[in-house]
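INPUT
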Amino acid sequence: MENIINALPYFWEGLQLTLYIFVVAIIFGFAIGLIVALLRLAPSKILNWIAKVYVDAIRGTPFIVQLFFIYFGLNMLEFISLDRIAAGILTVAINAGAYYAEIIRAGIQSIDKGQTEAARSLGLNATQNMRYIILPQAFRRMLPAFTNQAIISLKDTSLLSVIGIAELTQQGQIASSTTFDYFSIWFAVGVIYFIVIYLLSLLADFTERKFVLR
Amino acid sequence: MTMIRVENLKKSFGDLEVLKDINAVIEEQEVVCVIGPSGSGKSTFLRCLNRLESITGGHVYIEGQDITDPKLNINKIRQEVGMVFQQFNLFPHMTVLQNVTLAPLKLKKGDKAAADEKARQLLDKVGLGEKAGAYPGELSGGQKQRVAIARALAMDPKIMLFDEPTSALDPEMVGDVLEVMKQLAKEGMTMVVVTHEMGFAREMGDRVIFMDGGYIVEENVPKELFDHPKEERTQAFLSKIL
Ligand SMILES: Nc1ncnc2c1ncn2[C@@H]1O[C@H](COP(=O)(O)OP(=O)(O)O)[C@@H](O)[C@H]1O
Ligand SMILES: [Mg+2]
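OUTPUT
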């Protein structure tokens, strides 16, 4: 117990970094996902193909390999220099972006074609149809899947410890290897992750109820 | 004045040729009903009139403008041509009032108060003034369809297209919707109505077009077409449904 209490300030540091990386990465990831989903559905074979290659590449490789590629691999290029945290955020964002793209694409395609027909017959153009009719309905349907993916991304940030980012898991590693109290330390770290994820899903439930389709 | 002119219209879905050679002229204030067996191409014909379906061949002129011209801004034409669907296609995430005001607000740059006021008048006209704040999910089928009509009218269209507007309704709802359509016809709206309501076609139609197999087989004033059909296929169809 004493070991946990001594480690708490470090856990707090780590948690803040975890949340910072998570929030920034999820915002970028969402933007990437939206753009890629629209490319995927755009009336251009080349754009569709580019989007599909991106999604397939991310889904077909492990997160940790993506992380090593971005942090160690890309940094070998002359004109790129990413610090640990930038590389970590980028990896989580690019990874989540591919999954978000698929969620958004499926959401858009799940909306009845009659909606687009009604909107277009009124004279709305394709962009206005997407913005006012399709996306607002699709996003409501996608909320549960968004939450799921956000939780996965949050857990993925713990893998960033392997490139030495001092996020929560890394703090756990430091605390456990200095105290040798592996049981208490890792139990405490687990509880912290659990609480954060639980709060996240409460927030999601709340927004879902607020935006539920009438 | 000619509102719609259709010349040698052809439409294929892949290898399937659905409209083979359609020619039609619809004058201002005319009410034209389109009848025919299921699968004969009635909906496809209607949907070519505002290019909801891409047109494979021939020409469609709306108020003299060729909508098959790829340089033409089809969105402008569509603002003049209202459409009502069998399945209503209301926007479920918006209130009735928002459904009706969306297009005018986004396309006509009017202020919100004026758009709301006009929408309320239209909703009163279709008998749904008190439903402005409701969501589509809270309405019956007949109410939904009347909202859909109000939504289309909010753009002040010069032409209204109806694709089997009462086919998805419970029988007791049909009358209210037909009543609204009759009112519109009396006010001089140019209307093209795909319908199975032969009573409506007979009473309100200036002309009836009978389609079969991707062709217009016969067209005439309702009395002639229903009482003295000239073509065998028309006779066969009418004997089945009347
Ligand atoms: N989007 C489509 N793709 C392929 N075939 C279609 C499509 N829409 C209609 N068809 C076919 O075109 C024919 C005519 O359809 P439609 O115009 O809906 O007939 P109607 O309205 O007279 O019942 C039918 O054989 C139908 O299966
Ligand atoms: Mg049809």
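end of record. DSSP finds eight helices and no strands in chain A.
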